[in-house]
Amino acid sequence: MVDVKKIKDNVAKVTSKISSGKVAPHKHCRVCQKAIPVNSDPRVCKAVECQEQNDKDKRNEKQMRIWMFIFFGIFAFIFLTSILRQVV
Predict the structure, then answer these.
(1) pTM of the model
(2) At residue 53, what are phi and psi to the nearest 5 degrees?
(3) Where are the beta strands (DSSP E) in the chain?
């Protein structure tokens, strides 16, 4: 038979071992993955390379967002003009 009390004791021991070795709350740098404080606003460490890479990534994201809106606008214009030509 299965001894439920023994299993519960073993589970309690394992969980207490795991919880005793907790790591302090932290985040990781987006570039180099080093641990940084939780309250750091741009999620990068203080290394110059990481900050430059983060700035470059932000500019790239902004440019991609602009191109996406331009592409969507062109697509919507073509789609709407084709519908209007069929109606008229």
Answers:
(1) 0.60
(2) -65, -40
(3) 27-28, 35-36
Pairing mode, strands 35-36 and 27-28: antiparallel
Instruction: Please give the structure tokens belonging to residue 58.
Output: 């932000």
Distance set, CA 82 to CA 49, 68, 74, 88 (Å): 49, 21, 12, 10
Cα(83)–Cα(72) distance, integer angstroms: 16
Nearest-angstrom CA–CA distance, 73 and 28: 37
CA–CA dist 45, 33 (Å, integer): 9
pLDDT in tens, 47-82: 999 999 999 999 999 999 999 999 999 999 999 999
In the predicted model, what is the mean pLDDT of the chain? Answer: 87
